[in-house]
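for the recovery benchmark. C-alpha cells below, seq after
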C-alpha cells in the first residue's frame, strides 16, 4: 500500500484584462466539511483587502520629463526652516515630497482619463474639414497624446520593477499586470503564531510581527549559541577558493556592462 500524498491547489488562471480590473483578487482554501470528499474547495475573493492605506513616497521618473519639476523642487527646497542642519535637511525633504505629490495630482491627474479625452478630441477633429488650423491642432493633440502614453508607460514600468524590457511598443498593460502580481506576491493575508493559531487582517498581523520583533530584540539570547550544522555544505573547498579569489578587470567590466542602464 503506497503512502498518502496530500497536495493543495493554490493557483488560479485569469486573463490579463480580468486581472487588471480586479487588482486585489485572491484565492482562499475552504476546509473540508464532508466525509464524501477529501478535496479542499477554492474560494475566490475579488477584494482580499478592502481598506486602503497610505503608500510610501516614490519619485516618479516621468516627472523629470516635465520642465516644471525642477521649479517645484527648487521652490520647495529654498523654503526657510529653523533648527539644526540635520533638522533643516529633514524638513526640506519633507516639504519637497509634499510639493511633488500636490503638483503630480493637479498637473498630471488621471492618465487614463486624460488619454481618453485626447483621443476623443482627436477623433472629432479628424472628422472635420482639414483646414490649416485643424491640421496644426491635430499635430499638437497627437504630440500630447504620445507624451501622455510615454509617461504612463514609464510610471508603470517603474512600479513593476521590470528592468529587462527596454524597447518596443507601449507595454503599459504588461507593466500594470506585473505591478499587480508583485503586490499580490508580497501581500500577507494570514499568519500562524507559535501556538498554531491563525491571524488575519493587516492591523492584527502587524501587531503580531511587531511583538515578535520586540521579543527578539529584548531577548538575552536572540541567536543560537551553537551554529554548527545550521547550514548544509553544498560546495567543495576548490569551489570556495574560486569564489573567494580576487576578481580580474575583465570580470568587473563584464558585470558593469551587464547592469541595467
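predicted aa per position
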Amino acid at each position: 500500500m503506497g503512502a498518502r500524498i496530500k497536495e493543495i491547489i493554490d493557483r488560479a488562471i485569469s486573463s490579463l484584462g480580468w486581472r487588471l480590473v480586479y487588482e486585489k483578487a485572491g484565492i482562499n482554501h475552504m476546509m473540508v466539511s464532508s466525509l464524501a470528499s477529501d478535496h479542499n474547495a477554492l474560494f475566490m475573493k475579488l477584494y482580499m483587502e478592502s481598506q486602503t492605506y497610505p503608500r510610501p513616497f516614490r519619485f516618479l521618473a516621468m516627472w523629470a520629463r516635465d520642465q516644471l519639476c525642477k521649479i517645484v523642487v527648487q521652490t520647495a527646497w529654498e523654503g526657510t526652516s529653523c533648527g539644526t542642519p540635520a533638522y533643516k535637511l529633514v524638513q526640506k525633504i519633507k516639504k519637497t515630497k509634499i510639493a511633488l505629490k500636490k503638483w503630480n495630482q493637479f498637473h498630471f491627474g488621471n492618465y487614463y482619463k486624460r488619454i481618453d479625452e485626447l483621443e476623443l478630441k482627436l477623433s472629432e477633429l479628424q472628422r472635420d474639414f482639414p483646414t490649416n488650423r485643424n491640421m496644426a491642432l491635430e499635430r499638437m493633440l497627437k504630440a500630447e497624446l504620445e507624451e501622455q502614453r510615454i509617461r504612463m508607460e514609464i510610471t508603470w514600468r517603474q512600479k513593476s520593477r521590470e528592468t529587462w524590457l527596454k524597447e518596443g511598443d507601449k507595454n503599459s498593460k504588461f507593466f500594470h499586470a506585473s505591478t499587480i502580481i508583485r503586490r499580490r506576491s508580497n501581500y500577507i493575508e494570514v499568519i500562524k503564531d507559535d501556538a498554531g493559531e491563525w491571524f488575519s487582517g493587516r492591523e492584527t498581523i502587524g501587531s503580531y510581527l511587531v511583538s515578535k520583533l520586540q521579543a527578539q530584540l529584548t531577548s538575552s539570547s536572540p541567536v543560537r549559541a551553537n551554529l554548527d550544522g545550521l547550514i548544509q555544505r553544498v560546495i567543495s573547498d576548490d569551489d570556495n577558493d574560486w569564489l573567494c579569489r580576487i576578481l580580474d578587470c575583465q570580470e568587473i567590466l563584464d558585470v558593469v556592462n551587464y547592469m541595467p542602464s
